[in-house]
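WARN retry 2 of 3 for item q-0093 after timeout on previous attempt; input resubmitted unchanged.
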Amino acid sequence: MFIDGQFRDSRLGQEMDLIDPSTGQVFARAQLGGAADVDAAVAAARNAFDNGPWPRLPSPERRRLLLALADAIEAEIPAFAEIDSVNMGIPMSSAKFIIGELSVESLRYNAGWMGKIGGEVINTATPDTHVYTVKDPIGVIGAIVPWNSPLMAAMVKLAPALAAGCTVVLKPAELTPLSVLKLAELVQRVGIPAGVLNIVNGVGSVAGQALVEHPGVDKIAFTGSTAVGQGILRSVAATMKRVTLELGGKSPVFILPDADLDRAIDAAAAAIFRNAGQICAAGSRVFAHRKVFDKVVAGLAERAGAMAMGRSLDAATQLGPVVSQRQRERVLGYVEIGRGEGAEVVCGGQAAGDAGFFVQPTVLASVKPDMRVVREEIFGPVVGVQMFEDDDLDRLAALGNDSEYGLAAYIWTTNVSTAHKLARRVKSGIVLVNGGPALDRGVPFGGFKMSGWGREYGREGFEGYLETKSVSIAL
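OK item q-0093 returned
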C-alpha cells in the first residue's frame, strides 16, 4: 500500500499472484488491502485536504509539481510500458503510446486549467446586493480504475483531481496494480505532499466497497462494468457522494456505401481488435450497407488473419492476450453462444497459442439484433457484422441506438451532410467520423444511457472535481 507518503504493508495481510497473460506464469505477488487500509488511506487524504497545503497552494506551485510529475513519468515511459505490458498483456508499442500521449499529457493538460476556471459575478433582481460564485475542490476522491490500461485509467482521474486541488485514494484493479505503485515512487520523488495520493490495492468487493461506503470520501470516480456502477450508485445513496461513472459500451460502426472502404475496414478492425478488444469504446457492432457488406466482412476477416499475435513484449506483436484465463473463457463462451444463436463464425473463435490467454480475432456474420453477442458487452476481440438495406438515416440510427449502451459510435461516409445528420441522430457520448480520435485529452468522453454518468477529459472532466459555491452579500 502507499499511504500518507509511505509504502506500508497491508493490514489485511493477504497476497495474490500476478500472472503474465502472455505466458500464464506467475511473475510477481501483490499485497491486498482491506477496510483497515482504506480507513488509513482516507484519513491521510482527509488530513491532507482539510489541514494540508495541497488545496491551498497557489496554482503556479501546484502546476509546477504536476508538470514535474509528468516529466518524471515521461523519462520512464519504457519502464512503465513494460510493466503494463507484462502485467496486463497490452503490446509494448501500444503501451508506450498510451502512456506518452494520454497519461503524461493528461497531467500537462489538466495542469493548464489551474487558475483559468473561476466563478462569476451575477446580476440579481435584488437591489443592493453583491453576488458571486467560486469554484472549490470537492475534497477527497475515491478513484476506482480497471485493468485494461492500468496507468492511463488511473491518470484520467488523478490528473484532473489533483489539478483541482483534491486529494485521492486510488484503488487499482487487483490484477494490475504495479504501474500505479511505480507512479507512487515518482510522487515521492518530485515532492508532492504526503497524503495527496494514496493507493490501496485490493479486490473490489472488499477494498473497493469499503472506499465507496466510507463517510470520509466526497466523490467516487469509477471506470468499469455497468453492473458494478449500478452497485456503486446504490451504495453512495446513504452518503450522497458525488459520482462519475464511465461504464460499458456496445459501440456501433456505420459503414455507408460511399465510404473510403479500405480506410473504413482498417479502422473498424482496429476499433475491435486493438488491445484484444478490451476497450470500453470498442466498435463491436458493425453495420455495413448491402452494397459493401460482403467486402466489409471479407476485409475484416483478412485483417484479423494478418494480425501478428504474440507475447506483449515482442516488438512485432499487434494482438496480445486477454488479461486472464477467466476473461478468455468469458470471450470464448460468447462465441459459442453466438454459434448457438445462429451466427456464422467467419474467422477466429478459438483459443490460440500453447501458453498464455490468447483468443483469435473473431468475425461473426449473420448476426441479428436480438442475439446476446449483439446486445451484451463481450470485452474481447469479437465483432458482429449486420447488413442494412436502405439509405434512411432515421432507420439506420435506430439500429445503432437499439442498445442499452451509448458510449461511442463510428461513422464512415464521404458525404459530409450524411455525416452530420447521422451524428445528430446517434445516441452516443462520442461520435467519430472518418477516423476522428477516440481519446483526446481535450475532448469530453463519457456515455449516454447505461454507459455512465458524467464526463472525463476536457474542461468538463476538470470541472467534475469542483463544486460551485454562491456567495450573496447585502450591501
